[in-house]
Amino acid sequence: MKQVWQVIDSGYETCFQGIATDKTLLAACSRQVVADTIRFFQYDADCIILGYYQKAEQEVRLSFCKDNGITVSRRLTGGKTIYWDREATLGWEVVLYQQDVVTPRQIEALQRKIGAALVSGLKMLGLNVRYQYPSTIELAGCEIGWFCGTRTGQAFLYQGYIYSKDIDVSTLLRALRIPREKLQNKDINKYRKKFTSLADALGEVPSLNTVKSAMILGFCQVFDISTVSNHLPISKDYLDTACQEVAAPQWVFNRATALPSNSYQLRNTYTKRTFITVSVFLDRKQRCITGVSITGDFAAYPANIIEKIEAGLIGLPPDVACISQTISTCFTNQQAHVLLVSPEIFTRTIGKAVDKLAFLQWGAKPEDILDLTMVGNVFNHISGGKHKPLLIPYCAKAVDCPYRYTEGCGRCGRCDVSEAYSLADQYGLEPITIQNYEMLEETLKNLKKRGCKLFIGTCCESFWNKHARDFEQIGLPGILVNVDDSTCYELGQEQEAYQGHFANQTKLKKQLLCRLLEGIS
Q1: Which of 126, 434, 72, 374 is nearest to 253 (CA)?
Q2: Which residues does residue 313 pair with via DSSP β-bridges, in sequence order?
Q3: Which residue of 78, 319, 387, 504 is 20 to 30 Å from 220, comparing CA positions?
C-alpha cells in the first residue's frame, strides 16, 4: 500500500505565520505525530526572507525596507535571501520523516529527489524545466523556482517558490544588497532576464490550483505516494506562540555577534561554491578562541550543526589541527552534512581568519585587523618582488577635483589620494586610481600578466563581500585596506560607482595604510 501524505493549502498568511507553521510542522514531524506533508502558501505582503545562517545587515538594505514597509524575516532553512513579491510568488514546502537518510550521499540523493519531483510536476504544465543542483529550477537557463532544506532529527523540511508572474526586479535590487554594479548602463532588464515565470512561459497566468495539482502529481510520481487534503493539524495557541518567537528581533537578527572584551576579531570569507563568512574572536593575552560566528548562504543538515561548531571551538588555541579535529567531531556526532561545503572548507576558512594575526607583525595594531583583508595566499609574496601596485578608489578624490574621473593626481593635498600617492613614492609602489569596476578587473588581470605577485588596495567591506568571488577568480594575491565614511553601498549608489559617477567622497585609512606599507617594505 502506498504511503499517504497530507496536502495543506494555507492560502494567504503573514511571513511570520508561515515560518511559525514551518517550525511547528517540522517539530511535530520529528516526533512522528503528523503525517508527511505537502503545503502551499502565499504571503500577504511583500517581504524579505533571510536564509537561516545569514546576517540581515549584510544581505538587506534595512533602511529601504523600513521606509517602504517591507518586513524582514528569517526562515528555518539555509540558502540565499529571498525578496518575496506577493503578486508573483507561490510558496510550497514538504515536511517528511526519513529514518534511513543519514549519510551525506543519502541527503544529497533526497535533495535531488525533491528537485526531480518539482520538475516532474511542472513538466505536466508543458514546461521543459530542469533541476540545477542544489537548489534551482530553470527554464531556458532562467530561474523559475528555487528551494532549500534543513533537518531536525530525522524530519526534513524542504521549501521554496515558483514564480507565477514576473517579479518586481526594481524593488528587489533596492531592497537587497545585491551588487547592482554588475549591471551595465543601469539596465535593470539585464538582471530581470535571470528570472522567468509561468506567465512568461505559458503566455498567460495559469490557475494556481492547476499549478498546485501538477506539483502534487509530481511528488506522487517520484515518491510513489498518494495524497489526501487536510487542515493544519496544529492548535491556534501553539501556532501563536511560535509566531511570536519567529517575529522577535532575537530570531530575525540572531546571527549578530557581540565582540567579547579584550579580544581580537579575525574575519575571513569563503566564496568558491557558496558564501561563508567566519568571525573568530581571540583573547589577546591567552590567545584562545572566545567566540566564533559562521554566516552564509549554505544549507546545513541538521540545522544546529553550525551552533555546535561555534560552541565547540570556544576555549581552543588558534591551532588549525585543533580546529580541524573539533569540526570533524561535530560533523560525525551530528551525522551532519552541509551542501557543497566539507568540514575541511570550514577549517580552512577559519584558519585563514586566524592567519590575519600576521598583520600584527606587519605594522597593524590589534584594532586594525578588522579593516584588513587578505586576497589569496599573500605569505609567499609579502616581501620582495619587483612590482607592487597601490590601487586607490577614485571616490576618495575631492568631488570637484579635475582628476576625479581620470587617472592621476595633482598632489594638491586637498584629499587623501594626494597623501596615498606620496606613500606610493616613498615605498616604491605604482599608484593607480581605479575609476570603475571594469577598470579594476582589467587592471588586476593585466598586473598578473605582467608578473605582479601582490597588490595593495583600498575599498569598502561591502565591495569586498560582493566581489570576493571575482577577486579569487582573477587569482592575484593582495591586501585590502578598508575605507572610512559613507560609501556607495551605504548610500545605495552602486550603479553610479560601477560607472565611475559616485558623487560623494570617501576617506582612506591613511595611518593604517602607512603602518602596513612600512611593515611589509
Answers
A1: 72
A2: none
A3: 78
Contact 301, 108 (CB under 8 A): no
* Calpha distance 417→393 (Å, rounded): 9
CA 518 to chain centroid, in Å, comes to 35
Helix (H, G, I), strand (E, B) or coil at 7: strand
User: What are the grid coordinates assigned to 151, written together?
Assistant: 533537518
Q: Per residue in 111-135, pLDDT tens?
A: 999 999 999 999 999 999 999 999 9
Residue 31 has pLDDT above 70, yes or no: yes
Distance CA 468, CA 269 (A): 8
CA distance 266 to 280: 5
Pairing assessment for the beta strands 507-508 and 483-484 based on DSSP bridges = antiparallel
pLDDT in tens, 244-284: 999 999 999 876 556 566 778 888 888 788 889 999 999 98
pTM for the model stands at 0.86
Kindly provide the b/e burial profile for residues 345-354, where b requires at least 16 CB atoms within 10 angstroms of the residue's own CB. bbbbbbbbbb
* Long-range residue pairs from 460-464, CB within 8 A, at least 24 positions apart, any chain: 460/487, 460/488, 460/489, 460/506, 461/373, 462/177, 462/487, 462/489, 462/490, 463/487, 463/489, 464/269, 464/373
Instruction: Supply the DSSP symbol for 243.
Output: H
Which residues lie below 8 Å from residue 486, measured CB to CB, with a gap of 6+? 504, 506
